[in-house]
Amino acid sequence: MKAGILPSNNIVMFSYQINYGARMSAYEDVVKIAAEFKTFPSLITALGKVRAKTEDSNLIASIDALILELQRGHAGAKNKSMPVCMEKFTLNEAKNLLTYCKRAIGTKKPEWQILAERHGWAPRT
Predict the structure, then answer these.
(1) What is the pLDDT along the chain (125 residues), one digit of tens a residue?
(2) Close Cβ partners of 25 (under 8 Å, ≥ 6 residues apart)
(3) pTM score, two decimals?
């Protein structure tokens, strides 16, 4: 919250600007993470945070599959601190995760609605 004092006709008025910011969905978080350069441990941690905040079992399974591959790759890496960009990965797990998230974002529906529709719920018509 930012507060500022604006003088107006010798009266002091307060102007507040509250920036709640739109909470990014887990799907948007994954796409954002994928576009950034991160070390393997940092990427695994970031994906783990998304995993912890979502209830989407398909997203969790995709993240788990990718984290497993990242751990395997990190174990055999010679330069463990080299930043990587997940968007450039050729791993099927990374491609599948990004495709799934981009499709979910494309529906323009919140996560709760995607999950509800998957389990048979439909909006009233």
Answers:
(1) 444 444 444 444 444 333 334 567 999 999 999 999 999 999 999 999 999 999 999 999 999 999 999 999 888 888 888 999 999 999 999 999 999 999 999 999 999 999 999 999 988 88
(2) 104, 105, 110, 111
(3) 0.78
Both structure tokens of 14: 């307060």
Amino acid at 21: G
Number of Cβ within 10 Å of residue 11's Cβ equals 7
Rounded Cα distance between 71 and 10, Å, is 64
Q: Where are the alpha helices (DSSP H) in the chain?
A: 26-35, 40-53, 57-76, 92-106, 111-118
